[in-house]
Write a structure and sequence with these properties.
about 60 residues; three-stranded antiparallel β-sheet
Amino acid sequence: MMHSLSPPISQIRETENDAIMERVDVEGNLLSFSILAVSQLAKSKPLIAELLSGKGDAA
């Protein structure tokens, strides 16, 4: 008997940085993130982002 793994139900949400989107599960756990339009980002300015799951406090 084969069991297939279903992908977790998730949603994409915005961050404070317009170039970064987070993918979180239904419990708010961070699954992944995407950096959009990388080639258009200023090369002289570092990309800084704080990715939080929305649960608890940051360590």
